[in-house]
Fold this sequence. Notes:
The protein has helices at about 1-35, 40-45, 60-65, 70-100, 105-115, 125-135, 140-145, 150-160, 165-175, 180-190, 195-210, 210-215, 225-230, 240-275. About 75% of the residues lie in helices and about 0% in strands. It has one domain (about 60-275): MetI-like fold. This is Sugar ABC transporter permease.
Amino acid sequence: MITRTSDRGRRLAVHILLIAGAVLMVTPFVWMLSTSFKSFADSMKVPPTLLPSEWHFENYAKVLTTIDFGTYYLNTILVTLGRTAGQLLLCSLAAYSFACLKFPGKNVIFLALLAVLMVPSQVVMIPSFVIMRQLNWLDTFYVLIIPGIFSAFGTFLLRQFFMTLPKDLEEAAKIDGCSYFRIYWNIYLPLSKSALVSLAIFTILAAWNDLLWPLIMTSSEDMRVLSIGISSFQGQHSTDYPLLMAGAVMATLPIIILFIFLQRYFIEGIAMNGIKG
């Protein structure tokens, strides 16, 4: 009887902690959505109020007319799709090489690749800018997409997953005369759907929210992305919070919908990498 009571107490405590954590996670999104319908004066009230005194649905229309939202949205989609497709292809090829092939210096090269994860991106920003300028890639889709398709994290993630797959499948394929690329394409990739989806979600989030790289590498309005467009509502002396939040809602909504549809594969991939990797 005492054991049952203690188990119920633990479960209750765990549920209370989970509910509190869920409230903390959801509160910023609720506040963002509420502020997007407020007037500027209403958003500056002290003390602040959760619900607007008057609902201003026209804030979303103002976002579309104040900035070139359609161009920013299209550029962001193209950059995100390009980076995601490139990372899935290149990282999976590199991960298969490190996990399954034997070549001189493999471990040394892999350790050098992992060392890249320890270097902050801001440290190499100036050398990267110089290289992009010498290649005449500044203010083009090349500079927004191509440098972003190389990922040490993605290679590491997929390598750990590939190493958990049974080696018997690869050996049987070799006996049947399959080449290394065919083994990679017809055996490893179909079995790695959850890991590929996990990497795709990480890449999409990083590309969709990227601000510093596009801000430095692009200068024309035609090449700006969504994060830069939304940041334009934040001025030096004042910030139009309702329009800023309305733009943030429209920018966040596709990512939320995407995660809802892919969360099963994402959680499965992370769990398998965490248990077996």
